[in-house]
């Protein structure tokens, strides 16, 4: 049994006339009669009662017609859904992101635009380090990664694009000895205690901050490790220590901290988007919207 036979059967069942059904199907009557006979032989029951004057459905034919309608609707839905999935209009999209990536307004605007344009996509987001996201994209556990810092060699098998290069700033308690300055040097933070991400999380930001401090002769004294950006800003505001964060982070927080620009030109961090070279249709749609969002900025 195939879709053509179902289609032929429904046409005859609705017309109750082989000639009219053949005209409706744009075929001659003999092939139509042959296909109905093959269908009946396959099912082992008569679907129609035929004589020279009339054609009518048997009891088996009446039951089969209802199932035929259902099967045709399901097949049409399957065809439509397959085409929609091929255009990236339905399905799922898994996006990974670094802890500070969602403070970027360009990224947030892209996510909002994508959600509005493709409401039927099951959009899932999960936090992860740069290294874990590269592994997850390559292993097809996520479709897209929004990652911080310089990309390691393991990312060469993926496609990537730099979204932004953002200045790092120092954040201090309001009553800190350096709080009267608008710009400071990294070396001014010698002997300070720092609030940073745990090194075990392997975040690109934490690695970069520690690297910058070490390059300026500072072995960071860790006051406390926090696993969220808001916690780091809040703890600095409470006087626990100082920190170095992307500038957009403090623009998004109302915590009482003093923000100081860093004089060093190297005090910046990149934000990249990564994806597989053969990305899914849903991922390609997201990347297209992201590109358009960046072009409008």
Structure explained in plain terms:
The structure is a single chain. The chain is of the alpha/beta class and 297 residues long. It has 3 domains: 3-86, Orthogonal Bundle (Arc Repressor Mutant, subunit A); 91-154 and 276-296, Periplasmic binding protein-like II (D-Maltodextrin-Binding Protein, domain 2, 3-Layer(aba) Sandwich); 165-269, D-Maltodextrin-Binding Protein, domain 2. 43% of the residues lie in helices and 23% in strands. The chain has helices at residues 3-15, 18-25, 29-43, 59-86, 105-117, 130-138, 204-215, 229-237, 247-251, 281-296; strands spanning 48-50, 55-57, 91-97, 121-127, 144-148, 159-173, 183-184, 193-196, 221-225, 243-246, 257-262, 268-275. Helix 1 (3-15) packs across helix 2 (18-25) and helix 1 (3-15) packs across helix 4 (59-86). The radius of gyration is 32 Å and the shape is rod-shaped. The two termini are 57 Å apart.
Give me the strand/helix succession: HHHEEHEHEHEEEEHEHEHEEH
* Cα-atom radius of gyration: 32 Å
Content of β-strand: 15-25%
Helix content: 40-55%
Number of domains: 3
Number of extended strands? 12
Second CATH tier, the architecture of the largest domain: 3-Layer(aba) Sandwich
Please, how many helices? 10
Q: What low-confidence regions span 5 or more consecutive residues with pLDDT below 50?
A: none
Content-based structural category: alpha/beta
pLDDT averaged over residues: 93
Largest sheet: 8 strands, mixed
CATH topology of the largest domain: D-Maltodextrin-Binding Protein, domain 2
* Shape field: rod-shaped
Distance between the termini: 57 Å
CATH class of the largest domain: Alpha Beta
């Amino acid at each position: 049994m195939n879709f053509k036979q179902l289609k032929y059967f429904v046409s005859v069942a609705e017309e109750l006339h082989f000639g009219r059904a053949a005209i409706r199907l744009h075929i001659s009557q003999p092939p139509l009669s042959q296909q109905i006979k093959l269908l009946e032989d396959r099912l082992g029951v008569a679907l129609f009662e035929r004589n020279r004057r009339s054609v009518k459905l048997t009891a088996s034919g009446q039951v089969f017609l209802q199932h035929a309608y259902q099967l045709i609707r399901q097949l049409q839905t399957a065809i439509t859904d397959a085409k929609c999935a091929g255009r990236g209009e339905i399905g799922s999209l898994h996006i990974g992101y670094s802890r500070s990536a969602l403070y970027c307004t360009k990224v947030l605007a892209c996510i909002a635009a994508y959600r509005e344009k493709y409401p039927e996509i099951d959009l899932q987001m999960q936090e992860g380090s740069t290294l874990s996201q590269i592994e997850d994209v390559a292993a097809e556990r996520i479709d897209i990664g929004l990652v911080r810092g310089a990309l390691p060699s393991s990312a060469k098998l993926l496609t990537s694009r730099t979204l932004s290069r953002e200045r790092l700033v120092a954040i201090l308690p309001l009553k800190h000895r350096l709080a009267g300055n608008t710009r400071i040097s990294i070396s001014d933070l010698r002997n300070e205690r720092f609030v940073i991400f745990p090194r075990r999380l392997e975040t690109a930001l934490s690695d970069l901050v520690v690297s910058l401090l070490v390059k300026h002769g500072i072995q960071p004294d860790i006051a406390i490790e926090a696993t969220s950006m808001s916690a780091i800003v809040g703890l600095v505001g409470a006087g626990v220590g100082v920190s170095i964060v992307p500038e957009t982070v403090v623009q998004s927080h109302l915590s009482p901290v003093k923000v100081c620009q860093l004089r060093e030109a190297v005090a910046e961090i990149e934000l990249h988007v990564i994806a597989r070279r053969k990305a899914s249709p849903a991922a390609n749609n997201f990347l297209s919207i992201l590109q358009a969002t960046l072009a409008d900025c």
